[in-house]
Amino acid sequence: xxxxxxxxxxxxxxxxxxxxxxxxxxxxxxxxxxxxxxxxxxxxxxxxxxxxxxxxxxxxxxxxxxxxxxxxxxxxxxxxxxxxxxxxxxxxxxxxxxxxxxxxxxxxxxxxxxxxxxxxxxxxxxxxxxxxxxxxxxxxxxxxxxxxxxxxxxxxxxxxxxxxxxxxxxxxxxxxxxxxxxxxxxxxxxxxxxxxxxxxxxxxxxxxxxxxxxxxxxxxxxxxxxxxxxxxxxxxxxxxxxxxxxxxxxxxxxxxxxxxxxxxxxxxxxxxxxxxxxxxxxxxxxxxxxxxxxxxxxxxxxxxxxxxxxxxx
Amino acid sequence: xxxxxxxxxxxxxxxxxxxxxxxxxxxxxxxxxxxxxxxxxxxxxxxxxxxxxxxxxxxxxxxxxxxxxxxxxxxxxxxxxxxxxxxxxxxxxxxxxxxxxxxxxxxxxxxxxxxxxxxxxxxxxxxxxxxxxxxxxxxxxxxxxxxxxxxxxxxxxxxxxxxxxxxxxxxxxxxxxxxxxxxxxxxxxxxxxxxxxxxxxxxxxxxxxxxxxxxxxxxxxxxxxxxxxxxxxxxxxxxxxxxxxxxxxxxxxxxxxxxxxxxxxxxxxxxxxxxxxxxxxxxxxxxxxxxxxxxxxxxxxxxxxxxxxxxxxxxxxxxxxxxxxxxxxxxxxxxxxxxxxxxxxxxxxxxxxxxxxxxxxxxxxxxxxxxxxxxxxxxxxxxxxxxxxxxxxxxxxxxxxxxxxxxxxxxxxxxxxxxxxxxxxxxxxxxxxxxxxxxxxxxxxxxxxxxxxx
Lengths: 313, 454
Prior knowledge:
The structure holds two protein chains of two kinds. Chain A is an all-alpha fold. Chain A has two domains: 1-94 and 272-313, no CATH class; 100-259, MetI-like fold, CATH 1.10.3720. Helices cover 74% and strands 0% of the residues of chain A. Chain A is flat and about 85 Å long. By secondary structure, chain B is an alpha+beta fold. Chain B folds into two domains: 104-201, no CATH class; 222-452, MetI-like (MetI-like fold, Orthogonal Bundle). In chain B, the strands form three sheets. A four-stranded mixed beta sheet of chain B has the order 1-3-2-8, covered by helices on one side. Chain B has a two-stranded antiparallel ribbon with strand order 4-5. In chain B, strand 4 and strand 5 form a beta hairpin. In chain B, helix 4 packs across helix 16 and helix 7 (222-258) runs parallel beside helix 11 (313-325). The radius of gyration of chain B is 33 Å and the shape is extended. The interface between A and B is large, with 47 and 41 residues.
């Protein structure tokens, strides 16, 4: 187990290095310079390039990034908030916090609501409850986040005026409602579908019949025996969910005007603010990678039969 | 006992010839004739894989309904533009910001003219072109009276010509009189009421057709744009899925067949790509590729570059993104299938019988993989449509005047509080397409994967 975790951490660091390299090459391939404005002369650009070390060969620049990241230094912004350390921009201006909060609430909603709904559907298989949930979840995985988000916005903020149109920095609970729902709805539906399927699989197993034959209460059978075994595919899915929620946050943050990291990333790409692009990519990627790692370990705890070292089998 | 014998026998035996004792007829033990053999074969006709799958798919009501709705969407996207008189890019003056099913003022005039005109030009053809004219397509105002064209009492093969000299005038020419674009004999326009000689003005109004989904702020018909956008989205989905299919299956097959160190390295690469949060890279790629692609389109003289240029850099970079990042799932599935199938007894048997690698791939691996390939490709289409709409929504995918369902939703967002239906129509179509494709994919999985057979 320890060996496995160490191995996974090494792979995670390697992945981050690859992501850094790819991001570095891509952002250098964006045409134009971050210092190019209407007034700038070639000399000014050259001076600015020299100041920030952008005149050095690419591999030196990349190496500098890696070196400073190892020291925990994310560099300073070139353009959007010139001179401000990127770590301050990301962590101390509430951007990361906002995105993280939004993402975690969405994840929580998907799990806390999705799993019970899946159980209810499986338990009431074939009844109208199951039918209704199936229709909702099937439609739910087909609605793009932005369509749902804008429809919610029109209905509840513009027409009914129950909720604010601009969620801003998420200061009230009302501001959370629509962003969290639109961010998590797809995953909520997917988790419910997944739970239903694996629950039905589990219910037909011999040990469930044995438990029932022994006279264990239905509730107990569902919660103790069936649920625990049917959670494995759901847990596996949580890694991709995290990546997806980050993706969704780009849309949700721009729809509801939330100044989060997703929105900032899109802006930094358009502004060619290299250190910000790099830092945001690395932070978000690290989040996804750590999540995947946690999921894989949780996977092992839920089902000791799974041998992590031979994943290929 | 004799009766039973007759029933069991696969051969058609004349009841009169059934032996009443055990003096067996020697003829009954003769080798079967060709006709008899053929009838045996007929009785046990095998059901092909696809037929079997289709039979199972047909029984799946949900998938069949989804397939039907998807086909309707296809008709909407591909046939629809031919049926409505508006095009996705044209801006119709005085028709800005119309609600669903509304007519602009011009169109309302035209509508009333078609209903209550003073007379009809009898013609079957349109000025200058060889296209037939439809009732109410155009009308002429002359001498305080308004005349509409009609197909009724059509003059046989005549062409209307608008002479745009100092004094514009309308003439009608018989088609047989036109030679090399020049007409010789000018005839008076055949008019049911008054002659039209010296007509001052010809007002051309398109066929009066309601803007079913309304129009946008620039006066473009939203239904035409939605049809066009649906077509773009569906095509992007299909092409991206095919790209993924080709790259993923080749990569996966090589990895699975080669095994050993090659497999190990190839799978580590897959794992690496898999763990990259691709949307971050996709966003970067979209920005990076935009200008170089445009430069390539502009400089490109080859047919390929021109064809790509017609698509625009947004769409091409979506394809590139899929080719770079999204094939990994397919590669994993194909590799898994190949690994599983490689160990099957029938493959061992085929190897033992001396079958070549090519034959094993063709006869054993491919037919057994094909189900998984079809399912994954089918389910890849909606996910590609999703990604494209996501990018277009962020303003990175297709660019105006082109449209995709995602960019239409994005355009609608600006005026969402005033004109919510502008988002609803493309949004609903997008959802319906993705939903039906998902359901068809599920149905295909049930139908094509015999391991799930109950």
